[in-house]
Amino acid sequence: MTFDELKKELEDNYTEYKANNAWFPFPNQLDAYNTNSCWSAYQKTNEPNKVPLLLGDTKIRSNHELVENFGLSSANGVQEREALPLVAEAQQRRERVAGAMAPAPVAGPTATAPMALAGAAAPASASSAAAPSSAAAPEGAIPVVGSGSILSTAGWSPMLNDCFILGGVHRGREFKFVMTPEEGTVFQALPSTGAPKERWHEFFKRYPLALWNSQHNVPRVFAREIFGLSAFGYQPILTHSELSFKRVNEGAANGASLARYSKQLLDSKMIPRGDQTAVIAKLEDFLYREGKG
């Protein structure tokens, strides 16, 4: 998708975004800042990259290991000012790794298993999951803030979030759910016997906050992202330790658009105000009926 194509989609759907996401303070008119921010978010995930894009609670943006290993996808700088020291530390560690490495080409980073990052015992291969400073060539380490796997950007909006997903979908990138330590604790307490679908179904029953914020009675952004992937040719892949989403229908992915995204959210009762019963039923149907594993 070109800049002009995305700009037209933003213009064509802006009124609907404002109406269906009234909880967010959109400006009266689509301005250059929001247009350019959405384009940057789209571009960063649309780059050729085999590293998965990470989905989950906002807390994953403050996980030192995740930030160092996978980096932040940021259109306008990091989302929270309090994250700046963490980002600086992660960048320093990347630079140290880059400086210690020989200038010979190295393989791209191997994604660490989400459960290991959530506090579970790391698999034997996890030690090979070097930070994307992997690519540390003689010129130095890859910046932590830029085209990473975790969305964290100033000027965030649901529209920008959808562009983040759209860019990855058009590129056919894999998406992975990453747990917070609290979620990991709940998940690890579940029996690992039986089908993976059963374990994940029980997890979301015991930890509904992953999908629905009962305090404010609204769906989580992670639920919004799952609905987008369900409309764009992706299939959930469930194992006893991971939940990921992989493209199985290239045509549906290539035809992904903001208009189709909004329609899926409306049809699923996600917007304009989430219907919890309908939303959870739709999510379960996608995860456990269509999911593989």
Q: Please, could you describe this protein's structure?
A:
By secondary structure, the protein is an alpha/beta fold. It has one domain (3-289). The protein is built from twelve helices and nine strands. The strands form three sheets. The chain has a four-stranded mixed beta sheet. Helix 1 (3-20) runs parallel beside helix 11 (258-267), helix 3 (64-70) packs across helix 4 and helix 9 packs across helix 11. The longest helix is centred in the N-terminal third of the chain and has 18 residues, at 3-20. Residues 102-138 have low confidence and may be disordered.
Q: Which structural category do the helix and sheet elements fall into? A: alpha/beta
Helix fraction? 40-55%
Shape: globular
Q: How many discrete structural domains?
A: 1
Spell out the helices and strands N to C.
HHEHEHHEEHEHHEEHEEHHH
Total number of helices = 12
Structure summary:
The chain has 293 residues and is α/β, with parallel strands linked by helices. The protein has helices at residues 3-20, 32-45, 64-70, 84-100, 114-117, 158-171, 181-188, 196-206, 221-231, 250-254, 258-267, 276-289, and strands spanning 53-55, 72-73, 145-146, 150-151, 175-177, 212-213, 218-219, 234-238, 243-247. It is globular and about 45 Å long.
